[in-house]
Automatic annotation (TrEMBL):
Domain EGF-like residue range list: 303-333, 410-443, 444-474, 548-577, 578-620
SUPFAM superfamilies for this protein: Growth factor receptor domain
Membrane among keywords: yes
Source organism per UniProt: Durusdinium trenchii
Keywords: Membrane, Transmembrane, Transmembrane helix
The protein's name: EGF-like domain-containing protein
Bilayer-spanning residue ranges: 12-29, 41-61, 95-118
């Protein structure tokens, strides 16, 4: 009887095919974008053709198909028992090698697609869903480029970079355990952006370990202060908030989504190459990761030298910290002891630190300690060839007096502002007056008294008090700033946020200060529901309400009629119109232009040759954002920073 039994090659084909099936299912379902599973399916089942290409290639490498072995067996004469045993053995082989693995692999693939669960992910991370992912702000395509992750050098801690990463979560901040967890990696900027799962694993786009990685818990975020703190203009903030609150876009800020921010401290930062920080967030409830990572600005590898306050991106120092001077090689060297500024060399100090005095000595300018810790000034020439170890004081701090030896002594009376040698008081603090008794002391003027010429005879009262004929301060009625002889508030005399209102007590009319009922209202005399003066940035409407002054307007008496504009705007017919981009002042040039000296720091004005106006300038950038000005050297360069 001729028969053929499966060779190791055939068994390997089944095993390899099953492995590819399970792995391809994991790869296909693990894609982040909806279109990617279709491409991956085509790639796996059409391009790979794993039975004809992948398996053959693997077995060729492993020399599994170098020799085809045909095995011919001459079996013994069959008997019913041997035939049954042979059939059972053949069935067991087929079941163990083919059908059980095939059914298991197919079941796993079907369950993955039905329940949206990846087997490898389930084993590694537990149950994970794609529901309610935390979205990074940078992936929303918001106006004004809002809001990327902002990386900056932390001046409080050496070798530390602070990264602020805003995100949107469907979980409300009141759900304390459900705050998003933000994962981040520091990756070289020349590499591609890593996927969300790679960032979760602490790896870069090529699968290698990131330079640094970690995770922090996000905190609830108020977007307006954050954007204002990170340089966004008021109109941009209004536009972004309007976009986020537009229900048609499905974001619904503070309705369906809530803002969070992760404040990341990267320490020690890898300064040896250019690095960007990539971050994603994880929903702690569903385990979903952000579909698209957020990326920070690239931080260049050359940092400021030690003791340098401002430097360019090439590490060249422009200005040293106080107490240091810049040398020709752009390094910062310490000034002599006690010296705050020495731009012309260590022997020529121009300003001393507190508690030191500037002394000319042997064609030098040096700093010598004052004789007392509470001395304000002790500058002056010295006698002799050798400077003293301490200088006599000329002026002492408040509540201290100068004695005959040039030392500062604490005044004996704690309310004495200035004294002579600690005992003879010459001036008292506010609310006190000199009392010339047996000893000169500072006596209290009286309750509510701001200043007086003698004890218990006040000349000026604090707000909320009135001065009586006897020189006493008597309290006005509640919420009243200035009042009449009957302690009733004068018209217009209420504190901000309160209005002068008439109240009838039988046949009598008594004025009172009542809280204004209009939001942002400062004064509402006669009618608590009709405002007559609004707080800053708001103006009065015709109906007595308070409405924001308008774009770029910082002060207005009436809504829509501006009195003063913010930087970057010019007042035209009671309206604030914007200047040119990055322009701070355009008083002479007018809207959409800039004055020659009106650009923001880090920008310079160039002539707008396409405009006929003689004052037509626009702003162009200097060499980098850290450059304060380039008015002399022009765009793309940087002027030297004075010491």
């Amino acid at each position: 009887m001729w028969s053929w039994s499966p060779s190791p090659t055939e068994r390997a084909r089944y095993i390899q095919a099953l492995m590819v099936m399970v792995t391809s299912g994991q790869v296909i379902l693990g894609r982040q974008n909806p279109i990617e599973p279709l491409w991956m399916t085509y790639y796996v089942f059409m391009t790979l053709s794993f039975d004809n290409m992948l398996v053959k290639f693997i077995m060729y490498v492993r020399t599994m198909e170098r020799h085809t072995i045909w095995k011919v067996e001459i079996s013994h004469p069959e008997t019913p028992t041997s035939r049954t045993r042979s059939q059972r053995l053949d069935f067991a082989q087929r079941l163990a090698v083919l059908w059980v693995p095939l059914v298991l692999a197919a079941s796993v693939s079907i369950l993955c697609r039905v329940f949206n669960v990846l087997p490898i992910t389930l084993l590694r991370y537990g149950p994970v869903s794609n529901e309610k992912p935390v979205v990074m702000f940078s992936s929303l395509s918001l106006p004004a480029g809002c809001c990327p992750s902002v990386a900056s050098i932390n001046n409080s801690y050496a070798d530390t970079v602070s990264v602020s990463v805003p995100c949107l979560s469907p979980e409300a901040p009141e759900d304390w355990p459900n705050r998003p967890l933000v994962y981040w990696v520091a990756s070289p900027s020349h590499k591609a952006m890593p996927t969300s799962l790679q960032i979760r694993e602490g790896r870069t786009s090529d699968g290698s370990k990131a330079l640094l990685a970690g995770h922090v818990e996000a905190k609830p975020l108020e977007l307006w202060p954050w954007m204002s703190r990170h340089g966004y203009e008021a109109q941009d903030i209004d536009t972004v908030l309007g976009k986020l609150n537009d229900e048609t876009l499905g974001i619904g800020l503070y309705h369906r989504t809530f803002a969070y921010v992760a404040e990341i401290q990267v320490h020690p930062f890898p300064w040896f190459e250019e690095v960007a920080i990539y971050a994603i967030a994880r929903n702690r409830v569903t385990g979903a990761l952000s579909p698209k990572p957020a990326v920070s600005n690239v931080l260049h590898g050359k940092r400021c030298p030690p003791h340098c306050e401002i430097c360019d991106r090439q590490g060249q120092c422009r200005r040293c910290q106080e107490g240091f001077r810049k040398d020709k090689d752009s390094t910062c060297h310490p000034c002599p002891e006690g010296c705050l500024r020495c731009p012309h060399g260590t022997s020529q100090c121009t300003k001393c630190k507190a508690k030191f005095g500037l002394v000319p000595y042997a064609s030098k300018q040096i700093c010598v300690p004052c004789s007392s810790d509470n001395c304000q000034s002790c500058d002056g020439p010295v006698q002799g060839a050798i400077p003293p170890s301490a200088l006599p004081c000329h002026t002492c701090d408040p509540f201290y007096g100068l004695d005959l030896h040039g030392h500062c002594q604490r005044c004996e009376d704690e309310n004495c502002l200035h004294c002579e040698g600690g005992s003879g008081c010459t001036a008292c603090a506010s609310g006190f007056v000199l009392d010339f008794g047996e000893n000169v002391t500072c006596a209290l003027c009286g309750p509510g008294c701001l200043s007086c010429s003698q004890k218990n005879v006040c000349s000026q009262c604090q707000e909320g008090f009135r001065l009586t004929a006897k020189g006493q301060c008597k309290a006005c009625r509640p919420n009243c700033r200035t009042c009449d002889a009957d302690d009733y508030c004068e018209f217009g005399g209420c504190f901000p946020g309160f209005g002068w209102q008439k109240r009838h007590w039988g046949f009598l009319i008594r004025p009172e200060c009542e809280a204004c009922r209009v939001q942002h209202c400062v004064s509402c005399d006669h009618n608590a529901h009709f405002c007559t003066e609004c707080s800053e940035d708001f103006g009065v409407t015709t109906s007595g309400g308070c409405f924001r002054c308008g774009l770029g307007c910082t002060s207005c008496r009436l809504a829509g009629s501006c009195l003063r504009c913010s930087d970057g705007f010019v007042l035209r017919e009671h309206q604030c119109e914007p200047c040119a981009d990055r322009c701070q002042k355009c008083t002479a040039a007018g809207p959409a232009h800039c004055d020659q000296d009106g650009c923001f720091p880090g920008w310079t004005a160039v002539q707008a040759t396409w405009d006929e106006g003689p004052q037509s300038f626009v702003c162009r950038p200097c060499s980098d954002p850290d450059c304060p000005k380039c008015n002399i050297k022009g765009p793309g360069n940087c002027d030297d920073v004075p010491e």
